[in-house]
Amino acid sequence: MTRVSVFLAILWSGLLGNSCVLADEPMKTVFLHQQIDQLIEADTLVPPIAPADDAEFLRRAMLDLHGIIPTAEDTRAFLSDPSPTKRTELIDRLLGSPRYARHFATTFDVLWLERKVEKNIRSQDWYDYLYHSFHDGKPYDQLVREVLAGDDTQAAMRPTLKFYFARTVEPHALTRDIGRLFFGMDMQCNQCHDSPIVDDYKIGDYYGLYAFVSRTFLYQDKKKVPSLGEKPNGEANFKSVFTGESADKVLPRLPRGPALVEPVVEKGDEYAVKPAKDVKPIPKFSRRATLAERGVDGSTEMFDRNAVNRLWTHLMGRGLVHPVELHHSDNPPSHPAVLDLLAQEFREHGCDVRYLLREIALTRTYARACELPSPQTLNVAAITKRIDDCERDLAALTEPATGTIDEHESRRRKTLANAKRKSLEEARLASEYLRVEKADAKQAAIQWELLVKFWEDRGDVVILKPLSPESFALSVLQATGAVDSAQDKIRVSFQSKKPKEWTEASPDDRPRVEAMLVEKLTYNQFNSNMQQFIGMYGDAPGGDFGANLNQALFFGNAGVVEGLLKPAPGNLTDRLTKMSDSQTVADELYLAVFGRRPMKSDEAAVAEFLKDRQDRAAAIQELTWSLMSSNEFRFNH
Questions:
Q1: Which conformational region is residue 338 in: left (phi greater than 0), alpha (psi within -120 to 50 degrees), or beta?
Q2: How many C-beta atoms surround the C-beta of residue 278 within 10 A?
Q3: 29-82 confidence digits (pLDDT tens)
Q4: SS3 assignment, position 271
Q5: How many CA atoms, within 13 angstroms, populate the side-chain half-sphere of residue 301?
Q6: Backbone phi, then psi, for 635, in 5-degree steps?
Q7: Helix or strand or coil: residue 327?
Q8: Of 85, 312, 405, 454, which has the fewest beta carbons less than 10 angstroms from its beta carbon?
Q9: Is 229 left (phi over 0), alpha (psi -120 to 50) or beta?
Q10: How distant is the alpha carbon of residue 250 from its chain centre?
Q11: Would you tell me how many other CB atoms lie within 10 Å of the CB of residue 501?
């Protein structure tokens, strides 16, 4: 099915509660980012929000795709570029850079290991594996297949064992984290009973996934080198502590998938490599390998839906399903048709991460300004239509089925019904605001706050995203000029001694190889600086943002920050100290730190701060520190 026909089919299905007006139009190419915008804009009552200006868009895109703010030179160049396609060109340039691979290697390291300490696999080997996976455009399903397989028969795959070793190869820890991270289902409660709060999560679901990894164990050879072993037998069983429900010999089963039909193996013939002293046994049939294959091949919809929801969250700050680890019918997607479309497109495009990130980043939805909508621009007709459409659709979705429907269809209908209830709630909040708008100003203000909170919870307005510890550290290094200085020195060193990777590359490929090496060496050079930020700000991913006193003291007194603020040849404070005009100082300072030009009030504040200061160098350092410690710097917006 083509992208166009899929999109038209979705509109025709009536999921949005709108009649299809495109069916009679001539067929034309509709790109995914255009489809996303049409679906989002038809499914929200948020008044129109202006697009982000160029400075805000550049900073947002660089933080999301590179994990670092732009330099002052980057911003000047982008602001002065008159090309109408410069935003598309920017996204393509960012996704084609080694920094993209570095940032997403870091992002998925934190996501999948959750900052767990594990010493059997070198962190650098694991990072390099992830880096080259993203740099080379490895399909996401292949990447996860390799990680879940944990097969180190090839040396290049040994780093993947870090995922298992970080959980000490404990089957329940693996079951919980595989369910959360790869299928978007936090089934921790289901180890002992059906979930008391999520009807869709059953104890049988948990043990179906557990059965895939319960036979896996930590094996050590005679040199004490660890790897993964697997037994050919051993069954999963459970008994609910609440109801007494029990089952023996639970067959492996993917979330929302059928039970696995295992091949029959004669007793005594279970091993491809039989156990012996200092010999790792290898079964003829591997449940773990089957999980790696079946888990990512589309056998269950949850893999694709979880993947695209997490990538959407990375760019938008909030998932279509939120929390991202609670996909179930009572927690429906904010925009079900968008999630369906993304999952299908992701699979049809070979689980290409770059493709999906590019299309999301090109949407008007992504490019909205970080501002709240004005109440004066509510669409009264759209609110009335939404109420009528939702009530009609809800009646149809909740009407008893005339025939037998399977579990999947029942869950789908329940999910869509709950999504419609959320849409109806939005319309009624908006309708109530209009009712009291002129009669009761105080109540209208309260009602508007409720409506805005609803939009924030759905991700229908731009969400402020705190910088990760890694991005915070790199952005401080970038703003102060340390990154540029380090990269210049690395490039100079290449002139006297060409790296082996560069000399072995073809002439046409050498610029790419050089860029990759410069990025890698720069990142490694600043590892100690970054570790200090990670130690102070590095909570497990996914939690709510919260600053504390220790963080404030660190940023105000830590040697790493103080050292970066001292003037050094070519760095930010050195450049600013040499400028005599306060307006020029403000322009360079705001471009370097905030990625935007200063407003008149900013210029006045800088001029006032520097006026009559005897120690201008110290004043410049204080001024730079104050901007870097602000909310505007600390958040992606």
A1: alpha
A2: 8
A3: 889 999 999 999 999 999 989 999 999 999 999 999 999 999 999 999 999 999
A4: strand
A5: 14
A6: -120, 150
A7: coil
A8: 85
A9: beta
A10: 34
A11: 14
The pLDDT value recorded for residue 26 is 53
Closest CA to 582 of 613, 603, 612: 603
How far is 38 from 32, CA to CA, in rounded Å? 10
Token look-up 């007494």 returns 244
What the block records as the tokens of 561 is 């920050």
3-state secondary structure string across 593-627:
HCCCCCCHHHHHHHHHHHCCCCCHHHHHHHHHHHH
Cα(375)–Cα(332) distance, integer angstroms: 27
Q: Which residues have CB under 8 Å from 629's CB, separation 6+?
A: 555, 556
Amino acid 15: pLDDT: 41
Which amino acid is residue 168, in one-letter code?
A: T
Contacts (Cβ under 8 Å, ≥6 apart) of 137: 352, 353, 354
Tell me the pairing of strands 465-466 and 635-636.
antiparallel
- 3-state secondary structure at position 227: strand
How many Å apart are CA 309 and CA 348, to the nearest integer?
A: 16
The partner residues of 253 in beta bridges, in order of sequence, read: 259
Rounded CA gap, 321 and 495, in Å?
Answer: 50
Neighbours of 290 (CB within 10 A): 17
d(CA 36, CA 315): 14
Residue 494 backbone class (left: φ over 0; alpha: ψ -120 to 50; beta: rest): alpha
Tokens of 324: 């991202």
Alpha helices in 459-499 (DSSP H): 469-480, 482-496
Q: What's the CA gap between 498 and 487, in Å, rounded?
A: 15
Residue identified by tokens 């600053």 is 547
Residues 6+ apart with CB under 8 A from 221: 227, 278, 280
Give the angle 263-253-334 at the CA atoms, nearest 5°: 150
Report pLDDT for 12: 35
Write down the pTM of the prediction: 0.94
Region 526-536: mean pLDDT is 92
Backbone dihedral region of 114: left (phi > 0), alpha (psi from -120 to 50 degrees) or beta? left
Q: Which of 491, 321, 308 is nearest to 415 (CA)?
A: 321
CA–CA separation, 539 vs 533, rounded Å?
11
Contact 207, 234 (CB under 8 A): no
CB of 66 within 8 A of CB of 100? yes
Q: Which residues contact 231 (CB under 8 A, 6 or more apart)?
A: 215, 217, 281, 283
For residue 3, pLDDT over 70 is answered with: no
Say how far apart CA 202 and CA 245 lie, in whole Å. Answer: 11
